[in-house]
């Protein structure tokens, strides 16, 4: 709601600048502006209007470069307001609002650049890797349920997975608050040396919240910041490392099934429509049950090895599951487009997140 209101204010603020352009070229009698405006200055009023409108649309569509347009537009606008202070001084109120939002935007850009720089560094893992095709022979030693899943998702005949990028929308909440926060997220996974970077943008009580999950070299941390400035939750340590290992394994199973041929996965047992498997990395072994339906779809992933993080910094080991549904073709693969993340507390199940998969890109080439 606040973003929409701000968008409207910026648009109106920008359009008001057109009055200076109109007066400079005598297109109409603008009595509200009493000071004479030359044609060159009139073009500056027009430029300020255009920059404001461009900034507003970049902002509402969440394009990171909006902050640059905002700063330039605000500085130019304020200079013009000072030039016509007596008539245009109230425009400073809108510019102060833009300045405050821009400061938050700069902090968000810097925070997100931490994530982007980590991704660029991790790309070195796969820069020289050649695409090789996943064949029926490659999966012949996997449990039949898993083989059926790989066929169903369309992995056979496509390149083996070296890395992948995901885009999600969804909502999230903490166990303490129980209030949903809308989110969008971007994520990169790298297979050779298990690495996962996850960046989310959410809204908490109408204020922007950003979060960065990092998992590399077997070490993980989670950094959640209000306004991208103030840390509201930061977690690291042994429990976090184990939890992110579970999450990385979950990504294999749910989002990049072609990676299930990985040698670090051990297939332990099959029981009816479910298969138990373990994943080992950096001295940490986690396991999970994979549940399938008759069509060959993976419909749930259940692990007892993940920890729930509380806002007070403590962690509790709980049953963790990610029910999946709504399989559809997404960039060449038939994948579950919707998932929930659930912790099972002593008092019952608690769904703390839902995700809708928007896109997936496999084997991204470093640019």
Morphology: elongated
**Level of helix content?**
25-40%
List unreliable stretches of 5+ residues.
Answer: none
Chain-averaged pLDDT: 93
CATH top level assignment of the largest domain: Mainly Beta
Question: How many β strands by DSSP?
Answer: 14
Distance between the termini: 37 Å
Task: Please state the second-level CATH architecture of the largest domain.
Answer: Clam
Biggest β-sheet description: 14 strands, antiparallel
Summarize the structure in short.
By secondary structure, this protein is an alpha+beta fold. 34% of the residues lie in helices and 36% in strands.
Write the layout of secondary structure elements.
Elements: H1 2-16, H2 18-24, H3 39-60, H4 66-83, H5 85-88, H6 91-122, H7 144-152, E1 163-172, E2 181-190, E3 195-204, E4 207-216, E5 219-226, E6 230-236, H8 238-255, E7 265-271, E8 274-281, E9 284-292, E10 298-309, E11 315-321, E12 324-330, E13 333-345, E14 348-362
Antiparallel strand pairs: 1-2, 1-14, 2-3, 3-4, 4-5, 5-6, 7-8, 8-9, 9-10, 10-11, 11-13, 12-13, 13-14
